[in-house]
Amino acid sequence: MPKGEHSYQPPYDATSLLKNPAMGWMLYVDAFYHDTANPALPDNGFPDAAAYWAAQDQSGASALANIQYIRVPWAQLEPSKGHYAWEQDANFIALIDGARQRHLRLAFRVYVDSQNSYRQATPEFVWHAGAQGYEETWEDSHGRAFTYWNPTVTDRTFQLYFEAFVRAFAARFDDPDEVDFIDGQGLGWWGEMHHIRVEADEDLQSAFRWITETYANHFTRVLLGAQIGAIPDALSDWAVRHVGYVLRRDSFGSPLWLTSIDKEKILARWPQTAVFAENCYHHLLSRSSWWEGDGFMKLRDVLLRVVSDALQLHANTLDLRGPEDASAWMRHARDLVEHFARRGGYRFHVSAIRYESVIDDDRKMRIHHSWINYGVGKLPNDTPNWNHKYRVAFALLDIQSGISAKISVVTDVDPSDWLQNQENAYSSETCWNEVDAGKYSLGLAIVDSQHDNKPSITLATILPQTKTGWYKIGTVQLADRSKGAVS
User: What is the pLDDT of residue 487?
Assistant: First the structure.
């Protein structure tokens, strides 16, 4: 090793739960009609915030989750024109505050079709304004009938009102510090883009492009998700390839609804896009087994298959769902929950560092660094809305305070390129001009370049860390220019 060179292979952290963006377990507020016993879900279908968080905390699910996902009818968020739940609904505000207090990012799907909804999904003021639509009736498991009005999704009056809602929605929630992703579609049954009532194929294409572009025009910083499987592949590919959506897919764990052909389609689109998964099963404590075409399966076997599908298909996220289901996961499959938490999504480890620890008065320094992603997924850093904002960076840190004297961002390394178990080696030159001579700690981080180069991705590496998130690699001595090079 050359004189003054420092080389280190930090230990890998295989056990810690990483609270990083766009990955991990999700808790759900699933605002649909519900006819099983659930203390957190009253008759109106939307949970009481205090009861919801008490239940999620009691099971331990909130401590292992990264994301709070809210699937909700439009009418819940805008019950009357221009009046929004995030401004006026104390219970909704308390639900959001509860996520923030638990360091959970948010995610949303807003649906407009009332199938299985506890209320009409599209606000009545849209109907009264003259939007075209139709009435539809569905029955619950007790034979009770529910009739609601649904909009014709190609109707321009409906579209104008929904565009106004999305504009206001984005003004509040297009914030990647708070929100992980938005399902940027939400038409059809349950917002899953199927059973969309249209006259012709070209109407479906028109509605799909309209809803996709509406979200993309207003949400420019937060990730957007496109449902795959319920619509023609060409439309999904257009949303992913040309608009920059990540891939959203439900039915994980079910060979009936996630067939081998469906899996091949997902794998064909990865790693161009990250995969945000949803499992097929819910109301887990209300039933004892599931028929999957080849026989009945018990709860533990069902959950095992969910996690297996998620890992096989490179999923970044998976869902514990609401309190009833999260409790079942934690009680019957906590080991599976912890396994996915440590293998799902991305898990970055800096496997080797080598650098010149004594810097002459030219202030130039070359750093050799290698990285491995031990997760099955990818950091969706290459989406248009993130625009490669996460970057590897080095910093000279004050020895005592850990405050950075200068930060050097590496612009030719993109963590979205780091795929499962592949080693990625780089040699980067930094320059520490305008830094006083002396001894410093050399810091390393993956920073958000759109957020003042703040360290933003927790690594799976065992290294000392400053309060501001920099990992300390070793020390660096900068020459005193007035005395020439350090001998």
Answer: 38
Compute the distance between CA of residue 154 and CA of residue 204 in angstroms, rounded to an integer: 8
How many residues appear in the chain?
487
How far, in Å, CA of 406 to CA of 394, rounded? 9
- The domain of 352 spans 5-14+347-483
Q: How far is CA 232 from the centre of its chain?
A: 24
Q: Which two tokens stand for residue 195?
A: 């059973």
Say yes or no: 201 and 229 in one domain. yes
CA distances from 263 to 175, 233, 252, 253, 257 (A): 32, 13, 10, 11, 10
Last residue of a domain, which of 308, 328, 343? 343
Residue 177 phi, psi dihedral angles, 5° rounding: -70, -25
Q: Report pLDDT digits (tens) over 74-130.
A: 999 999 999 999 999 999 999 999 999 999 999 999 999 998 888 899 999 999 999
Which domain CATH number covers 35? 3.20.20.80
pLDDT single digits (tens) 40-56:
444 457 899 999 999 99
Residue 350's closest CA among 5, 10, 7, 6? 10
Number of domains in the chain: 2
* Tokens coding 30: 């699933």
In which element (H, E) is residue 166 found?
helix 156-173
Contact present, 418 and 372 (Cβ < 8 Å):
yes
The overall pTM is greater than 0.90: yes
Residue 174 and residue 235 in one domain: yes
